[in-house]
Each structure stands twice: as structure tokens, then as C-alpha cells.
Design brief:
The chain is an alpha/beta fold. It has eleven helices and nine strands. The protein has helices at 3-16, 26-30, 43-46, 56-61, 63-74, 85-95, 110-114, 142-150, 178-190, 209-215, 242-250, and strands at residues 20-24, 99-104, 121-123, 126-133, 139-141, 165-169, 193-197, 219-223, 236-238.
Length: 253
Amino acid sequence: MTDEAMRAQARAWIAAAERVVALTGAGISTESGIPDFRGPQGLWTKNPQAEKLSDIRYYMADPEIRKASWQGRLSHPAWSARPNRGHGALVALERRGKLHALVTQNIDELHQIAGNSAERVIEVHGTVRRVVCMACGMRAPMEKALARVRAGEADPPCRSCGGILKSATISFGQALVPEVIDRAMQAAGEAEVLLAIGTSLQVYPIAGAVPIAKRAGARVVIVNAEPTPFDDLADAVFNDSISTVLPNLLGSR
């Protein structure tokens, strides 16, 4: 089947579906200028020591790691990134009443900024736009903590209890939130079409959403720059730019 014929087939599946579930990974954000971690130009590929900044054990034990993490948050590319046409296509899908859920491995909230409803977005790795106290659980906008760093606090403590603050993201060594994962897997099992977008599908348990959807009878469409372990299981695979393919598949151009 030619690429255009495969696109036409995928468009027909999506047009006929009432419950489309999207699973998004770093690939949709890299097209907005946010680098991934493990890719050829990834943050950890270029600087393996940077991985320590995302490890909860080092973060909690070492004030110098926390100070470096806060400096990194000040310059995080999420603050200047803007949603791309791929994000926009998913917003258009929701407005057509077809987006059942949007499960994302990303922490940048670009889906919500683009216009997807917060209640549709399932953030399995949390968000960089909020801060959380590791002692009392206080949560607040990240910008408030960053303002303190800019004012000279290298490692700002919680103002409620003096505890350690970090971004409200899931770091290495931290458990995923069971309720969030359960919600994501339930959505996958309810999908008529599962769109896996910009994800390597190598990180579990969330990669398990693909076989769950397939077993439940969903069509699986993968849009990713590189091959994934589930390409053979998928009904359609597109190794091309998300900003090009997704608007075409979702009929938003």
C-alpha cells in the first residue's frame, strides 16, 4: 500500500470513530523546540551527568543537585515553546467531539496551551508548570518558585513547612500515580482508534496501552520519526513529521 493510500485508510478509520485516544510522547514536543532526553540530540545523550538532575535519590540527598536543577528550570525550553500544527490537529479532533482522551508522557502542558481541555489530558509524568513540596504536598505554580530563584534563593524551601520543593513531575525513582495509569489504560481499552504520536513506545507501563487497545479491537496508528517495537502490531505506521502527518490524518488542514 502506498503512503497516500495508507493515509486515506487511516483518515477513514478516524472519521468513522467516535472514541479516538491519542498517546503522545517527546516527538510532538521536539517539533516545538523542546529537546528529548534519549534521542541523538537528547539532553542526556549530550550530557550524561544531567540525568542525575532527574533522579529523586540524588535530588533529595544533594543540595548542589537541587541548585543545578533550579537553574535548569529557569531556562527550561517549555517557557518559550509554542504548540505546533500537531498539537493544533488534536485540538481540532476534540472540537469535532472525537477525542476520548489524550494520554501524554510530556510535562510541558503544550496540549492544554494549544486548546485541549484539561479534563481530556492525562499527564502520566506530571507537569513542569507546577511545584510540589516533598514533605507536606503543597502545590503551587512553578513561576512563584522561579521568581524566588531569580531573587537569589538557590534552593527555595517550602514556605508552608520548610520542606524540599521540586517540579510536579515524576522523576527516576519516583512511583507513577496508580490512579493516573489506571485512567490511561482504561481509556486505551475504550478506544476505537489509538493514535501513538511521537513516542518510542519503549517506556512501560504506558507503552502497554498499545496492545491493550489492539486487544479491545481498536485500530492502532503510529506516527513517529523512528521505528517502534509495536510497528508490526499497528494497522498503519507513518515515519514522518508529526506537524505534516497529523493535520492530514485528522482532517484539520
